[in-house]
Amino acid sequence: KxxxxxxxxxxxxRVTARNLFGQETSAASTQAYTDNGGGxxxxxSVLVGTTVQTTLSGTLGNGRRFEMRVFxxxxxxxxxxxxxxxxxxxxPAAQLxxxxxxxxxxxTLPAGSxxxxxxxxxxxYIPAEVGSLATLGIARFDEGxxxxxxxESTVDxxxxxxxxxxxxxxxxxxxxxxxxGSVGEARVFPN
Length: 191
Known about the structure:
Number of strands: 13
Strand content: 35-45%
Radius of gyration: 20 Å
Order of helices and strands: EEEEEEEEEEEEE
Number of helices: 0
Structural class: mainly beta
Distance between the termini: 40 Å
Shape: globular
Helix content: under 10%
C-alpha cells in the first residue's frame, strides 16, 4: 500500500523483491497517474449523487486531513465537488480569517452549484498552531461582504479535527473565534 500521494500527479514506481537468502531481483518499473476528476493538483474530488449520503475523506496537498459528508438531496443532479488547500501566503490579507495556516477551498462542477441542505466538513488542526480549543472553529469567507463568517463548530480532540456544517461552498479556514466587539459585528448561526 502506498499512501500520501498527491492527486493530479504522475508517479514512477520501482519495485524489487528479496528472497529468504537475500538475493534481490532486478527492479520492475511502472507509472501511475492519480486522477481526481480534473481538479487542482493535491485536491480531493467526489461525484455526489442525489439520493445517497456521500462521504469524502483524505489528505490534502498541505498535508491536512479533510472529511466531508454530503446528505441526500443536497444537489438537484450529479455534482462533482473539489476540495483543495491554500497556503496563507497565496491569500490576500483582506481575505484571511485569522493566522492558523489551515485554509481550504470547495468548488463544484457544474460551476457555482451550492448545496440546498447543510454539508458537514471537517478539517484537521495541529495543537501547536491553536490557542484555546474552546474558541477554535471554522469560518467561511463571504465574498459578497468581504468578511469571515464563523460557523457553529465542534472540536474532536481525539482526532484533532474541527467539524462544521455549511450550505455554501467557498473558502474556509480554521479560526480562533472571538466575541463580537459590537452588535453590528455579530453573526447569527446558521450562516
